[in-house]
Amino acid sequence: MATSRRSLPLLRTLVAGKTQTRTVTYMPRPGDGAPRPVTLIPGDGIGPLVTNAVEQVMEAMHAPVYFEKYDVHGDMNRVPPEVMDSIRKNKVCLKGGLKTPMGGGVNSLNMQLRKELDLYASLVNCCNFQGLPTRHENVDIVVIRENTEGEYSGLEHEVVPGVVESLKVITKFCSERIAKYAFEYAYLNNRKKVTAVHKANIMKLADGLFLESCREVATKYPSIKYNEIIVDNCCMQLVSKPEQFDVMVTPNLYGNLVANTAAGIAGGTGVMPGGNVGAEYAVFEQGASAGNVGKEKMVEQKTANPVALLLSSSMMLRHLQFPSFADRLENAVKRVILEGQYRTKDLGGSSTTQEVVDAVIAKLD
Amino acid sequence: MARRSMPILRQLCNFPSSNLTPTRSVTYMPRPGDGAPRAVTLIPGDGIGPLVTGAVEQVMQAMHAPVYFERYDVHGDMDRVPEDVIQSIKKNKVCLKGGLATPMGGGVSSLNVQLRRELDLYASLVNCFNLPGLPTRHQDVDIVVIRENTEGEYSGLEHEVVPGVVESLKLITKFCSERIAKYAFEYAYLNNRKKVTAVHKANIMKLADGLFLESCREVATKYPGIKYNEIIVDNCCMQLVSKPEQFDVMVTPNLYGNLVANTAAGIAGGTGVMPGGNVGADHAVFEQGASAGNVGNEKLLEQKKANPVALLLSSAMMLRHLQFPSFADRLETAVERVILDGKYRTKDLGGSSTTQEVVDAVIAALD
């Protein structure tokens, strides 16, 4: 219903992930051009730099979105309630990274946001870009990761001094809905195979429950191939034969590692788009950020790579049902990467963020 | 105690990390009686296990190495490791094993994990390096992954709270974290390694991985000559596939170590060639470094095409452990020559030889 309507544009995004310009004309409904508000959270580190890049490009395109900016930092106790209210009103949010401090005390605000808004699926699309040489070819992997439970429950306690227990919680409810999302995604995007990543030989009950749920859902999609792979073998296969993977569905921790590995083999975390989606809300951010918000030097010299967030914002434009703007943005970004003249350090060049943004704006048609 | 750990450490001292074909020119001066044959427990295991342990036996015989194997049949679907096998390992102190297939789903615990717990083999070591003559996508890889082997996510403590909700306990203790950190730094110190990297996810699992990190930091202060840094595990996976040359020795808790070791093995040539072992204060068990959680597929078994290189290099580590360094050198040199030649390679290295052909080539290359 509303769910499928919301997910359809998100998914259509990933169908049209190639460089050719679409020749389809869209027929909008009257009033569709009304500007939509989007909550914007610049965040910490390179966050403000890359979200600013998105703002500039959106303005250059005259896209019908306007941003409601909120200041949130990783060392706050909670996400401020006005930010949560704004997201609940707008239903869509774009964010840079929030830096999670190490050690006890403050919980991860990224996690808190995902739990409160019940953004239970995290999606990262890792694929080779034309013109960007990598050690691995033919990579086109979508990692769908359960976002709310598993090893990230945040339930730890010190039993006696020097002994800590950390709870990994797996429930049938969450495993089932992430499996359903993964198969639905594969179905709608004409993907051939879904692979479940697990370690059920060791964690028999926990990952066993996850696998059961995946198997049940798989029976409802007989035309999609389903297989399972143990996570250590999966890491090894990712670095030797990544072309065998298509859509991967994983619990929380494995998804984090698999997504970052897949992002690394296909070009780096600076270029992979992604987002978190739930039944009602969607938050777009860099696909795989390797748990950090960039180094000091990158922030000072302003050489952060804006490509990942630009591609995520084009996913967002599709989600808001502005597909032609999304197409224009993606094509411009892909042209810039193909030409190779303006690339930030992680792609082997030496441009600053601003130079890349200007190049993208210049390539917009 | 020190005498027992000395051979283990000496083995790691002498193991040529990324080295090529030069034969060692040092003569060893044995003590009288050192040539007496030593007993080693051999567990062929499941799947490709019997095939590759058979390869090791053949090569040992061809070299006239002073070891003899006491073979025991253990299979992954047994309830426990049989008592006589444990007794044998406790007597011999050294064991060589193929893989034990752990069945999926409830019921039987992993026998590999059980063995490690009972013998308290708390450190698992995998040396992942580029082999000359074997082209890979990544160059300059020389990583040693030291993984805590007894606790962490592999505690095996799970229960179903209510139907449909399962809790799995990840246990981290100061005792275990400290001793694995000590082992890692000691290894780095004895092998002239420059850097130790701790892999963790303490931004999310603050108490558990935080405790692990504390222990690593404490031990790091005692080795000021060795650089120490920390990396979050997801960033680590990404760095491994983009810039693996930055890593040297890595110390990790149980689960991350499994994934990092397999990823590192994959980038440097595959799990078919990486040697490794499990060591504790009293015993040592040598096996394939990173086996990607399986014992080979059916086809490999039928066509007898499993890669014996990993277990051969692990058995060379074992020979050093038993203080037979010249035999270890000969074996390693022969294996490296065969790989450099490139004529006899199993399927995972891009060739089409069978296990037996590779073994014959190694025996022929022995001097």
UniProtKB/TrEMBL annotation, chain B:
UniProt KW keywords: Transit peptide
Pfam families per the UniProt record, alphabetical: Iso_dh (PF00180)
InterPro entries, A to Z: Isocitrate_DH_NAD, IsoPropMal-DH-like_dom
NAD as UniProt keyword: no
Residue span, Isopropylmalate dehydrogenase-like domain: 39-362
Family note: Belongs to the isocitrate and isopropylmalate dehydrogenases family.
Protein name: Isopropylmalate dehydrogenase-like domain-containing protein
UniProt organism field: Hibiscus sabdariffa
